[in-house]
Design goal:
Blueprint: E1 7-12, H1 18-25, E2 31-32, H2 39-45, H3 54-69, H4 84-101, H5 105-120, E3 129-133, H6 140-146, E4 151-156, H7 159-174, H8 179-203, E5 207-211, H9 212-217, H10 219-230, H11 265-268, H12 271-281, H13 285-294, H14 296-302, H15 312-323, H16 327-336, H17 341-353, H18 357-363, H19 366-386
Parallel strand pairs: 1-3, 1-4, 2-3, 4-5
Helix pairs in contact: 3-4, 4-5, 7-8, 7-12, 8-19, 13-15, 17-18
Amino acid sequence: MLNDSRITFLMTFGHCGIDWMHSLIDSHNQILLTPALSFYRCWKMLEAQSASNTNEMFDIWNSYITKYIGPDSFNKQKKLLHTDKEMEVFFVQFRKYLESEGYDKISVFWAIHESYAHAKGINTDKIKSIVVHEHMPWPFKEVLSDFKNVNFIIMMRDPRAAIAGIIKGRVSDFGYLQDFTFNIIFETWLQGNDINKKYSKKLGNRLKIVKNEDLHDSLDKNMRDIADWLKVDFNKSMLVPTDAKGIILIPDSRYLDGYNQEIYDSEFYSPESVRKRWLSVLSDSRDILMIEVLFKDLMEQFGYDRISQYTYLSHLKGVMLFLLPNHALFSKWQVDYPDIEEFSRIDNRLKKTIGSGHKIWDILPSPIKLSFLIVISFFRRVMIYFFPGERWKRYDFSIVNKLK
């Protein structure tokens, strides 16, 4: 039976190559790694703690896996099971485990991994390391509390490159960077920064931060080091990105959207090319200053040179740039005014939560509505930066109603 004496959680600061790392260790026959399930996020969004018996817990996961990550899923990265036969074998084993071991969170965690191995025909006696893909860093403390001997690999890269890549994708998808999206991008990195500051020395060798740039610089050397750290034999499969079915993956980057030409990794991922790309997104020097101020210590620790000059005044300016509505979004508000999209969103939210509250919102003059947007945006980030509390409470909301 699987146990936590050899378990590692794979996490990220945000857009740092976690999927690439996943694909490099995916085909190793001594590593058990399910597709990108993000168990802790699922547990929260499914409100799984509300289950009062084995049948309810079984139904929660049956519904979620069938609808979102089963054979009919369009998300290849997260597809847990690929055939109806695998589904049948998985859920027979899943129910047996719950009935035998219980339906608390940790029992469900192991039930999923045992059932996945059973459905895929994996001999767990040959497994030397269990790697768990948790796509966001929010549940770090919870994981640390739940597993006594847990280890962590956390992917990181130059924060300017990472954040620019996310912004590029979100602007491509939605046309602009929404305020909520801006918050989650930066708070994810602030969470990673908090983890590094608080736990690097405390956990010692149990916490391994892997730089994306180091992998591109020398993949063979760094994957051998990771294999040694995971206590598995090095295998050349760790140099080739593959999915759960062993299919070789092509480079995944939002900078390649609509790009049909052949990609040469050595050129595309060279430091010069990477820098050129993130500079094209962070073309406004205010964005670079903001990022370099927020993650000053992190950049110094991992050897990322600043572009902006550090002074007390520039530091204060960088913090204020973060706290105030992002300049690009504010410019959009000015162009769209008074038909600002966020006005309608607030109105719809009030209809769902306060009922008649939206009637008051409807009669407010547009200047007051805009002032309200600015104040709310500011105070949300004051809380994020100065009084974060439990950061996870602001994200990963319930999806229970979507399962019905």
